[in-house]
Structures are given as C-alpha cells and as structure tokens.
Amino acid sequence: MGLLYLISRRSVIIGATMLGLLMSPTVAMAQATKVAGIFTLPVEQQWISRIHIALTAAKERGDIEYVYSENVSNTDYERVMREYAESGVNLIVGEVFGLERAARKVAEDYPDIAFLMGSSFAPQEPNFSIFDNYIHEPAYLSGMIAGADSKSNVIGMVGGYAIPEVNRLMHAFMEGARETNPEVTFLVNFIDSWYDPPKAKESAFAMMDAGADVMYAERFGVSDAAMERGLKAIGNVIDTSADYPGTILASAIWHMEATIDIAIKAVADGTYEADDYGKYSYMQYGGGSLVMDESLISADIVAAVKAKQAAILDGSFVVKVNDEKPVSDN
To answer: What is the pTM of this model?
Structure first.
C-alpha cells in the first residue's frame, strides 16, 4: 500500500510538472504574437482601415493578440509607442508620416521589439521596417477606364496631401488615362487634409464647373459630388461602390494582408529584421487589385484592362513609380 501510494504520488507530481511546462510562457510558439496598432486617424478611415482589417483578420485566426489606439495626435504618438513597448508587445504597427524622428528614436530604445510603420523613408536597423501603399498598378488600370469614359477630355483629381504615397497613385492613374485617351487633361488639387469631406466635395464641384466629367476620388467627399451631379468617379484604396450606386466606375484597392502576415510570421519565427515591406502591396503579392463595375464600362475597355492587368502580373508591362507632385495641365 505504501509503495502504491508513493508511485501514485510521484505520478501526480510528474503530471503536474508536465502540465506546468505546457502552460509555461517559455513555450513561445504556443502563444500568439502580441501586436499593437497606433493610428493617427479613426480605423474607419480608408487608408488606416486596410491595416486594421488585416490585423483583425490575423487576430480572428488566433495568430496574434491585437490591441490598438486610434486618433492619436502627433504630439502623443511617441508616448503611446513607449507605453505599448513597455507593455510587452512583440510588434508595433502604425504610420509615422510627419513624426519620423520620434518614432525611430523609440525603435532604437527598444531593439527587441519589431516595428512596422508606414513611412516615406528607409528602414532602420535592426528592427524598424517600413511599408507603403504601392497600388500604382491598379491605379493605372483605373485610369484606363477613366480616360475612355471622359467625353469632355477633362478629369478632376482631388487628393489629401502631395506626398509620395498619394503622388505615385495619381501619376499612375494619369498615365493609364492617357493610354486610352491621348487628348485627356487633368485638374489637380490637394486639400491639405486626410479627412475633410466637405472641403473635398467643394473642390470637386469647382472642377466639374471647369469641365471635368470624371473624378478621381482620392479623398472622401469627391464621390458624393460626382453622384449629386450625375457624373462618374474612380475610387481609391477601398471599394465604396455600394455607397454610390451607378457612380463608381472602378477602384484601385489596397490589401494589407500579405504585408501583415509576413511580418507576423517573421516575428514568431524570430527572423524579423529591418526591411522595406512596400513590395508586398504590389499586385503579384495580392497587395493590390482592381474592382470595376463592368455594367458601366464598354466591353472593349474591360477587355483592354484585363489584358493590361495580365501583362502587369507576368512582368511584361511595368507601371512607373513617380513620386513627384502632380500638377494641373495648362
């Protein structure tokens, strides 16, 4: 009886010890990567929403634990970064346009934490990677549709700020429009805001009054103006066609899933390093796509766009990246 008791007791101890090891935080791969998102705008805003959607999808799969802060002002951004870094997260994702120096200093102070930030500048060793919305390829395709649709040969373009992330999409769109309509001209304006629909709408109306019959809606508010006037618009980053029936010809869509998933895997594998993740927004990685309403577009243009998309994907056609500020035609 005593021997059986000792054996049973020993079995219980060994079992409890093994259970403790299985539940121990030292078993890293059994735990989800902890990710924090820091955003200067609401997560509903078109650009930010693409990042948030990708992170939320990873959370729902069980790949990560995800927390975020939205509407963080530039003056508070560094403080919020440090608070998340001190909380024990493994990866911090956000956008640092306008506050590069402060963000990079935080990354320098926390070399064991991975940072993946929207930025116009280069990565910073050892842990500060950058990404960007390189959806110039579907922007070019949407331009082909807009150029063919314009009867007045004037297209209006309303953007937020004249920064590379916006400029390259506008230039690609313009080149695509010129392919299908060599006579087309452009009216270009920047409202110097990421979110001011009334101001964007007012700018769009002014362009329509000057002859524009197709609008490039880089900002919210432009498609509202187009629908009110019975004109057509081209969407950007997200698909808003359901909100503007009969108005949105096509949209260049940004998908952040490839970028986010590759970063998460690198963190989990312990292989994360400073890198430029911008390429994962290219169409070949699934980071960009075109949606179009074929009921609003002639069959020959739909066929031409699909052929050009195939050429982009097989590498026989390359859409140029032009980060210079676009201007109106004289």
So the answer is: 0.86
Residue 186 sits at the vertex; the CA angle it makes with 284 and 200, to the nearest 5 degrees, is: 85
Query: Is 80 exceeded by the pLDDT of residue 29?
Result: no
Average pLDDT rounded to a whole number, residues 51-80: 97
Looking up residue 304, the CATH number of its domain turns out to be 3.40.50.2300
Sheet holding 128-131, edge to edge: 64-69, 33-38, 91-95, 114-118, 128-131
Element (H, E) at 268: helix 257-269
The answer to whether residues 276 and 310 touch, using CB atoms and an 8 Å cutoff, is: no
Question: Is residue 204 in some structural domain?
Answer: yes
Q: How far apart are CA 153 and CA 58, in angstroms?
A: 44
**Quick one: three-class SS letters along 137-171?**
HHHHHHHHHHHHHCCCCEEEEEECCCCHHHHHHHH
Joined together, the tokens standing for residue 265 give: 């895997």
The answer to whether residues 151 and 56 belong to one domain is no
Q: What does the pLDDT look like over 262-321, one tens digit per residue?
A: 999 999 999 999 999 999 999 999 999 999 999 999 999 999 999 999 999 999 999 999
Neighbours of 121 (CB within 10 A): 12
